[in-house]
Amino acid sequence: MISIQKSDLFLLCFSIFLVQIAARKHRRPNEINIVNLLDRNVKLRCQSIKTDFHDRFLNINERFSFKFYDIDRGDMHFWCDVYALGGIDRTFDAFGGYAPLRGTLTWFIRRNGIQLDHPNATVFPWRDLRPLLSSLPRTMATGFTKRPPM
């Protein structure tokens, strides 16, 4: 049977504590900001493999922010889903993946797409999932069928 003295146990716990403190010094804080500059409210959901911020609703000119450390495994890639009325639907990488890996990122949700850090640089344009109403048959576009003449 292995016997451990109190002093050995104390030294082991103290060394683990020192290793954790040293690891914290190398953690880099990151912050993601998402600003709604559309003329309507949007539904936003940001997540990583480990973290899920669930659905958030952003009013016009409202900001959503979250912070995390890049040493946390599984939190090196965050993506967000944006939905709004009028056919606005997009998933984009907010950190990692196709997005830069740097301290603070600010994303702007604008009329022509989602832009990074300054409002003139379009990074992710909107995908319009709605077909043009004029290209659909009349019954599909209006939802009504013509009555046959009597």
TrEMBL record:
Q: Which domain of life is it from?
A: Eukaryota
- One GO CC term on file: extracellular region
Is Cell inner membrane set as a keyword in this record?
Answer: no
- An example of a Pfam family matching this protein is Self-incomp_S1
Taking the record's annotation, the residue ranges forming a coiled coil are none
Localization per record: Secreted
What are its GO biological-process terms? Answer: rejection of self pollen
Q: What is its main location?
A: secreted
Q: Which family does it belong to?
A: Belongs to the plant self-incompatibility (S1) protein family.
- Protein's recorded name: S-protein homolog
